[in-house]
Amino acid sequence: MVEKVCLRSWRRVVPFLLVLLLAGGCSRIPRIIVLSDPLNAAEHVELGVAYERKGELDLAQREYERALLKDRKFYRARVNLGNIFLAKKEYGKAREEYLLALELRPGDAEATNNLSWAAIFSGEGIDEALARMESVVSGSGGRRATYLDTLGVLRMRANRPGPAEEAFELADALCRQAGAAPREGLKDEAPCPEEVLREIEDHRGELRRRIPLPSPTPAN
User: Fold this and answer.
1) What residues contact 207, with CB distance under 8 A and at least 6 apart?
2) How many CB atoms lie within 10 A of CB 118?
3) Which residue, 35, 37, 36, is CA-closest to 47?
C-alpha cells in the first residue's frame, strides 16, 4: 500500500518538476539588446576632431568611420579619415579617402592638396597629383600660399626646378603680403602663420640641394 501511495505522489510531482526545468531553461536564454547610436554623422566628426587634437588617432579614426556609416557621402568625414591615414603613413588608404572625397566635390582644393601630400610622401602618383594641383592653383581661390607651396614640392619631385622655384617664390610673397595686410588696413586678409613661411623656406632649401640653380654668368 505504501508503494502505491508513493507512485501516485511521483506521478503528481513529475509534471511539476518538468515545468520548473523548462522555466529554468528559458531563464538562461540571453536577451538580445539592440543599442542605437545617439550621435549623427556630424557629431561623430566633431568627436573625431576632438580626439585628433589630443593625438588619439585610433579613436579619431573610429569616429570618422562611424560618421561614414551614418552618411557615406559626408565629405568632411572622408577628408578627415584620409588625414588620419596620412598621419599614420598609410598612404594608399589616405589616397583612397581623398579620391572618394573628390568624387563628392570634384576639383576641391583641400582634398586635392592633401592627395598631393599622399603622393609626395609615398613617391607614387606624382604626375597625376601635379596635374590636379596645377588645375586647383589656376582656378578661383587656388592662389593660396599653402597650395602654391604644395605645387612647388610636386614640381620639384617631377624634376622641374624652374617652375618649382617660381611656385615657392610666389607662395612666399603671398604669405608675407598676408602678414602685412592688417597693417595696411586690409582686414579680410588673414596673417600667414610663421610655420608656413618656415616650410616654404625649407622646401626652397631642399630644391637648391637637389638641383642647384645655375650661377650667374660673370660680366666680361
Assistant:
1) 152, 156, 161, 164, 165, 168
2) 25
3) 37
The residue extents of the domains of the chain are 41-125, 143-212
Residues whose CB falls within 8 Å of the CB of residue 91, separated by 6 or more in sequence, listed in order: 85, 118, 121, 122, 124
* Contact present, 98 and 91 (Cβ < 8 Å): no
pLDDT in tens, 160-210: 999 999 999 999 999 888 765 444 444 444 668 889 999 999 999 999 998
Residue 99 CA to residue 94 CA, distance in Å, equals 9
Domain 41-125 listed as CATH 1.25.40.10: yes
pTM of the predicted protein model: 0.76
Under 8 Å between Cβ of 79 and 114 = yes
Residue of 142, 153, 135, 140 whose CA lies nearest to 110: 142
Amino acid at 137: V
Quote the CA–CA distance of 103 and 80 in Å, as a whole number: 15
Rounded to a whole number of angstroms, the CA Rg of the chain reads: 32
Q: Are 147 and 175 in contact (CB under 8 A)?
A: no
Cβ contact 86:61 at 8 Å: no
Q: Which position has the grid cell 511521483?
A: 10
DSSP state of 134: H
